[in-house]
Amino acid sequence: MIREELRISVYGEVDEASWNLKQALLAKGNAGQRETRAFRDYLRQSFIDTLTLYLHGICCDIDVETGPRQIPSRYLRKRLQLVEAMYAPPSGYAVFPEEARTGT
Question: Which has more pLDDT, 64 or 43?
Answer without folding.
Answer: 43
